[in-house]
Amino acid sequence: SRPGWFSRLRQGLSRTGSGIAQVFTGTRIDEALYEELEAALLMADTGVKAAAALLDDLKRRVKAAKATDPAQVKALLADVVADWLSPLQRPFEIGETTPTVIMVAGVNGAGKTTTIGKLTRHLAEGDCKVLLAAADTFRAAAREQLGVWADRNRVEIVAQEGGDPAAVSFDAVQAGRARGCDVVIADTAGRLPTQLHLMDELKKIKRVIGKAMDGAPHEVLLVVDGNTGQNALAQVQAFDAALQLTGLVVTKLDGTAKGGVLASIAAWQKETGREVPVYFIGVGEQLEDLQPFDAREFAQALLG
Ligand code: GDP
């Protein structure tokens, strides 16, 4: 049987997304079915381009398979979606370099701090020595919350009340080297209280981390909320332009998320040639609710 997180993912996606499963309950494969399917894909937040491309691909496969039953079309759609999303799938592996420095970005509320807590757990289970850097020095709550995750995972944290985010990151990387840590994870601000531009601040943090250690940060991850639909794609584009992302985490796919945004991220990557894998998906608020992204599982959950 499927693990609990899979059913949470399926429930989350089907609550709003799938309309998709309903499309295949009829007896005929006709233009009305494809129109309904297009509407369902758009409702699931795939965006117009990805919906059109998925449909084209599906129609080709339906023809080639000489399918006669909508249930066959549904199975073929699962293949189409899985193939479409598979370029986003890549295992998250920590390299040989110690410490490996991971910078994590994302707008407030996306699930950044929670994701760092879960990722720390994931790494600590693999016997990695992790150090957290509270580089969101603007919000006391952010620092406190990261502290809670550090305690829960029994790892150290570098924080400085009201300090400069880049300086905190610099100190953390140096501390990570001095203490023989395997991984340093820097939590960054998702919004600034000042007139300063967030992207400039994040670029500065990235630059200063590079000064603390050649080649760092080794990973620049963006956390996006799977509920935010096409806005999530806009965030990916904006943060990637500023920071050259190395990977994504899509959160809250257990909630009311529609999931189609992954198809639009895949479409963007196809179009631009950028490769930014989705390393993990968030399927709950607990420490174990961070799962490696698997295109086929995701396609199955999406189709209900
Ligand atoms: P940040 O502002 O980006 O650091 O966001 P937080 O980590 O504080 O998360 C914002 C809210 O989203 C919190 O209530 C988290 O518990 C919740 N959250 C984060 N990830 C997930 C997830 O995968 N599923 C669910 N259901 N909630 C999540």
UniProtKB/TrEMBL annotation:
<keyword id="KW-0675">Receptor</keyword>
<dbReference type="GO" id="GO:0005525">
    <property type="term" value="F:GTP binding"/>
</dbReference>
<feature type="binding site">
    <location>
        <begin position="251"/>
        <end position="254"/>
    </location>
    <ligand>
        <name>GTP</name>
    </ligand>
</feature>
<feature type="binding site">
    <location>
        <begin position="187"/>
        <end position="191"/>
    </location>
    <ligand>
        <name>GTP</name>
    </ligand>
</feature>
<comment type="similarity">
    <text>Belongs to the GTP-binding SRP family. FtsY subfamily.</text>
</comment>
<dbReference type="GO" id="GO:0003924">
    <property type="term" value="F:GTPase activity"/>
</dbReference>
<dbReference type="GO" id="GO:0006614">
    <property type="term" value="P:SRP-dependent cotranslational protein targeting to membrane"/>
</dbReference>
<keyword id="KW-0547">Nucleotide-binding</keyword>
<protein>
    <recommendedName>
        <fullName>Signal recognition particle receptor FtsY</fullName>
        <ecNumber>3.6.5.4</ecNumber>
    </recommendedName>
</protein>
<keyword id="KW-0378">Hydrolase</keyword>
<keyword id="KW-0342">GTP-binding</keyword>
<dbReference type="GO" id="GO:0005047">
    <property type="term" value="F:signal recognition particle binding"/>
</dbReference>
<keyword id="KW-1003">Cell membrane</keyword>
<dbReference type="GO" id="GO:0005737">
    <property type="term" value="C:cytoplasm"/>
</dbReference>
<comment type="subunit">
    <text>Part of the signal recognition particle protein translocation system, which is composed of SRP and FtsY. SRP is a ribonucleoprotein composed of Ffh and a 4.5S RNA molecule.</text>
</comment>
<comment type="function">
    <text>Involved in targeting and insertion of nascent membrane proteins into the cytoplasmic membrane. Acts as a receptor for the complex formed by the signal recognition particle (SRP) and the ribosome-nascent chain (RNC). Interaction with SRP-RNC leads to the transfer of the RNC complex to the Sec translocase for insertion into the membrane, the hydrolysis of GTP by both Ffh and FtsY, and the dissociation of the SRP-FtsY complex into the individual components.</text>
</comment>
<feature type="domain" description="SRP54-type proteins GTP-binding">
    <location>
        <begin position="277"/>
        <end position="290"/>
    </location>
</feature>
<dbReference type="GO" id="GO:0005886">
    <property type="term" value="C:plasma membrane"/>
</dbReference>
<keyword id="KW-0963">Cytoplasm</keyword>
<keyword id="KW-0472">Membrane</keyword>
<feature type="binding site">
    <location>
        <begin position="106"/>
        <end position="113"/>
    </location>
    <ligand>
        <name>GTP</name>
    </ligand>
</feature>
